[in-house]
Amino acid sequence: MSKSVYVLFAVLLSLATVTSLSAAKPNIVIVLTDDQAPWAFGSAVRSGQFQDVPAAATPNIDRLASEGAVFRNFFCTTPVCSPARASFMTGRYASELGIPDFIPQPGHKLYDPNNEARLDPDGTVTIAELLKGAGYRTGLVGKWHLGDWTAPGNEKFHPMRHGFDYFMGLTGGGTTPDSPMLEEDGEVRKFKGLTTDILTDRAIGFIERNREHPFFLCLATRAPHGKWLPVAPEDWKPYAELDPTIPKYPGLDIMRVKKMMREYLASTSGVDRNLGRILDALEKNHLADNTIVIFTSDHGFNMGHHGIWHKGNGLWATKKQPPGEYHNGVRVISDKYRPNLYDESLRVPAIVRWPGMVAPETVISSTATALDVFPTLAQVAGVDSDPKLLGRSLLPLLKGEQPDGWNNDVYAEYDMIHYATASLRCYRTDHYKLVRDDHNDGCDEFFDLAEDPSENHNLIHDPRPEIQHKIKELDALLRRHAPKH
């Protein structure tokens, strides 16, 4: 189905089935953070799901979790910014979209205006386009990172060409945590103040301007992506004297990781404080009862886990780079970077509050991925999503149902082309996980997650017949599920 026909179909179906959008459609607010691990909010650690990390001071994320549903096993499908965001926005794998790695922005040493992947509006439909076709007013405040539009001829890569009626933020991958350069009304200029606070101001403004009409707002914060400081004094206070718990790993640079952990969690507390402002704005404008609030992140984060920090393009956090050619059974391909598909990189927080539809304090253990957001919101809006999409609606899980035959397996991928080269493909079940690197010999991995949930023991060369049988089984599943394009 072509994009134009698909969007037209969505519009006609919406008009045919809904006589009063304001009465029938819930508002939708997504807070999409950057680099936030699922352990980086307090109640997640206190629940016992995560160890070797401190409980962050996040009263508003904790409040949202208590008032809605928490997914304990929610995964992105590529653990780096641009491809993860592309999948989130479209419900498609990044390899289908031609976005293998993060997209360098103008001024970055890797930027090439003539040779960069971008989210092309031709042939793709975003969540914003879907919901706009269903009668929603759509806004994106914050980080886009799906294509620079400033070069001549690149205007179509702007988020407002992808279904957003309103945009304020950064089209590239990063800016400073304070006094940022941001785009507003088509002009890029410097703002005063903390970046997350500024973005939240504009998000609240969007809510207030559209309170009489169904709206879709995505607040895509820059935080807690590094650089983490400065933060507001109240966000730093819980960590100023903290001696944080950190993962145990041989040779880890303990003092450095503890310093990074404090700063990272302080940045997370800044996100939390501003989430509270969003929730308060919904209450003030009498919108909370008819608004779905989704809190999630583009991908996960390592903070000393596996001896690295960062995400799928992890960097070593050890005092010395791994000695020799092999480390933990995997060939070292860079003295700085560790390409990976660890659970810490793939797993993300996912919380959904929907008063009257989602029971408070719901905990969902079934596995879901970012690809499921698109079909879920399509069902919420009353339109059909493209049947070729691989995601599934999460509404049954959110309502407390357990659909027959729900598959908890996850396929993930990452083609690292910046700084190091890797071609990672992963198939994960509840019990086992296989990672293949189709570019680098000696870098395949196999983990028994039931016995080794921290993925410390690579069994790829384990001679036991039952292990080799499972490797072949998952290898067949991996090749079967890899996108064909």
UniProtKB/TrEMBL annotation:
InterPro entries: Alkaline_phosphatase_core_sf (IPR017850), Sulfatase (IPR050738), Sulfatase_CS (IPR024607), Sulfatase_N (IPR000917). This is N-acetylgalactosamine-6-sulfatase. GO terms for molecular function: arylsulfatase activity; metal ion binding. Residues 26-383 form the Sulfatase N-terminal domain. PANTHER family: ARYLSULFATASE FAMILY MEMBER, ENDO-4-O-SULFATASE. It holds the Pfam family Sulfatase. It comes from Blastopirellula marina. Transmembrane segments: none annotated. Residues 1-23 form the signal peptide. Keywords: Calcium, Hydrolase, Metal-binding, Signal. Belongs to the sulfatase family.
